[in-house]
Amino acid sequence: MTAHETHSTPTSSATAANALEAIRYQRERGLQVLDQLLLPYQTTYEEVTTVEAGHAVIKQMKVRGAPAIAIVAALSLAVELRQKHAAGTFATAADVHAFIARSFDHLRTSRPTAVNLFRAADQLVQLSQHAAGRVDASAATVTEAYLAAAEQMLADDVADNRSIGKHGAAAVVRASAAASSPNVATVLTHCNTGSLATAGFGTALGVIRQLHADGWLAHAYCTETRPYNQGARLTAYELAHERIPSTLVCDSMVGALMHQGRVGAVVVGADRVAANGDSANKIGTYQLAVLAQHHGVPFFVAAPTTSVDLATADGTHITIEERPPAELREVRGATVLADGQLARTTDGAPQLQTVRVAADGVQVWNPSFDVTPAALIHGVITERGVVARDANGKINMHAIF
Ligand SMILES: CSC[C@@H](O)[C@@H](O)C(=O)COP(=O)(O)O
């Protein structure tokens, strides 16, 4: 894995014409992943040429967000597979299938909560098994079948997100009107669910983007999203990049914001939606849903069907990833000089530093996700439509499959 391209992040006005891309992939040119640990200060793409490198960028959260994790896993395997096939590593179709199955066994260990990776692994291993079982199967045919299917995931995710945006924007406008809030939407979101978390456009942030494009968005609020600050570092960056009217609040300000009547709807993403609609998402989502319920604010989850796990009956069965204590005890950012400017290295890049913000030796609990019960969710917005909560407070995700 090597640094592919590095430059200081230009101002939003300079970049407004360019779409933010977490993942760059072309069969002939390989896979480059935007290092999100360096955002919003610096735009650096890393070349990912092996499964091991794919596993590392996911685990270190250089790439994150449920759909992006699955796609980077699948494409890192595609790049190594193609390279190995060209080098004549595989004698038979069965060899290729064994490599794919073994690689996914490893990739599955990177992060446990988002189901997208596990779905992609199941689908692609099954596809390669099927391809290897054909009478005319060879190492070349199985490799080609895998590459085509992994590449299709990129295109499908963008198309799904655009659909989610359309369904979600309509649902938010309807809910805002029903809640007799002003007929333009003021939406709060959490974590980062935009272009940076997906193959493009985004899920919950895609809904905000669509509302803005259709002229329905009055204002967006994004939470800071401690401890990893995906809201402050990434969502705020995307909102500024798209020139969407927006305000950053820290997680503990949401109650006051809702109490003042300044939030018309909440739209968040999901890492795994259970069959009954219980949804795992970034830590802090649950408390937003409780606050929304208290204030009569509609609360939506926006997620592609690749994030729906019908095999998991309810949220109690979802594995919640625990992250290292250092993520809570320490904060990483750019050094600010006395004049308010950022300190820069000799090549002009902002100087990043990590600082301790917690008392020495304090114990830390750092779950990366929590589960919001379906009873608090107004509806789950998918690319196939919105699965709404029924009169008994229940959501049935089977309804869209
Ligand atoms: C479209 S991304 C949906 C979720 O993956 C997102 O809300 C989230 O919780 C991301 O968590 P992260 O830990 O940054 O991978």
UniProtKB/TrEMBL annotation:
The protein's matches in SUPFAM superfamilies, at most eight in alphabetical order, are given as:
NagB/RpiA/CoA transferase-like
The record's principal subcellular location, in a coarse class, is cytoplasm
| Gene3D superfamilies the UniProt entry points to | translation initiation factor eif-2b, domain 1, Translation initiation factor eif-2b, domain 2
Tell me the organism: Thamnocephalis sphaerospora
Marked site, Transition state stabilizer, at C191
List where in the cell it is found. Cytoplasm; Nucleus
Reaction(s) catalysed by this chain's protein: 5-(methylsulfanyl)-alpha-D-ribose 1-phosphate = 5-(methylsulfanyl)-D-ribulose 1-phosphate
Family per similarity comment: Belongs to the eIF-2B alpha/beta/delta subunits family. MtnA subfamily.
Q: Can you provide one Gene Ontology molecular function annotated for this UniProt record?
A: S-methyl-5-thioribose-1-phosphate isomerase activity
For this entry, the protein name equals Methylthioribose-1-phosphate isomerase
The record's Pfam families line, in alphabetical order, gives: IF-2B
Q: What gene name is listed for this protein?
A: MRI1
Q: In UniProt terms, what function does this protein have?
A: Catalyzes the interconversion of methylthioribose-1-phosphate (MTR-1-P) into methylthioribulose-1-phosphate (MTRu-1-P).
Q: What is its EC number?
A: 5.3.1.23
State the InterPro entries in the record. Answer: IF-2B-related, IF-M1Pi, IF_2B-like_C, Initiation_fac_2B_a/b/d, M1Pi_N, NagB/RpiA_transferase-like
Q: Which residues form the active site?
A: D271 (proton donor)
Keyword check for Zinc: no
**UniProt entry keywords in alphabetical sequence:** Amino-acid biosynthesis, Cytoplasm, Isomerase, Methionine biosynthesis, Nucleus
